[in-house]
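We emphasize that the prediction below concerns an isolated chain of 297 residues; any contacts that depend on oligomerization or on bound cofactors are therefore not represented. The input was used exactly as deposited, without trimming of termini.
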Amino acid sequence: MSEPDLSDLHAFLAVARSRGFRQAALLRGASASSLSEAVRRLETRLGVRLLNRTTRSVTPTEAGARLIERLAPAFAEIAGALDAVNGFRDSPTGTLRLNVPTIVSREVLPSIVARFLATHPGITLELSASDNFIDVLAAGFDAGIRYDERIERDMIAVPIGPRTQRFVAAAAPAYLEAHGEPKHPRELVNHACIAHRFESGVLATWEFMRGKDVIRIVPQGPLVTSSIEVSRACAIAGLGLVYTFDEFVREAIERGALVPVLKPWWQSFTGPRLYYASRAHVPGPLRAFIDFIRAES
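Result of the prediction step, given as a token string:
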């Protein structure tokens, strides 16, 4: 039996962690067909099936699971050994893989990323924007950005971007003229609400706070979408009320296309945080990014 290629082993590990060829291909910047061929080549060389494939999922066989147990720490050691060389450079090199929410990719990261990459030309950033809540480490990312309630307690978290954010409720002047302005969140049951559904399928609940009072509303209305552009456009067109990040509607409010409502009940919360595993060795590109955002805070 010939020795398997390290790249084939790495491809197998990526597919197994992602539970799919397409998902792994997106993370690795490769084609699903090339990953499939790499896994097939590895199985042929080892003479054993490593992955059970169906149209809906990819799962490790018993042999595959045993191989993953040995490969994962081995590749981590190799990565650590190679990255140790980065300590002798003026600026580290390598790839930094981040998983972030859509709001952060649009409103927080653009200016930060531009300055960071200009400072560290040897680093390549792979940025995946998704509102799904995943195990970023298992999916092959170096770190993620999330809000406090979504960060596991065994992770190290560093503030990035605004320290506080808020949700804003708003509607078009024409809508309010036709239907009246709600004065209390409970009145929203009598209004058309533009709802947001996450990629996971979960419908976002509208949560309002005033002092110790917390009111949660399940929005009902003519539109449910995962696109903020669509929901904002429809709110401006007078279809109903929208409740979303301030950053998404601020410009429309400033020019009068939308009117803020229920202002005393708007919810404020802690801004996003970069989080990563608590471990002795942090890869050079990630360490450089951590130091960069800490220096700017």
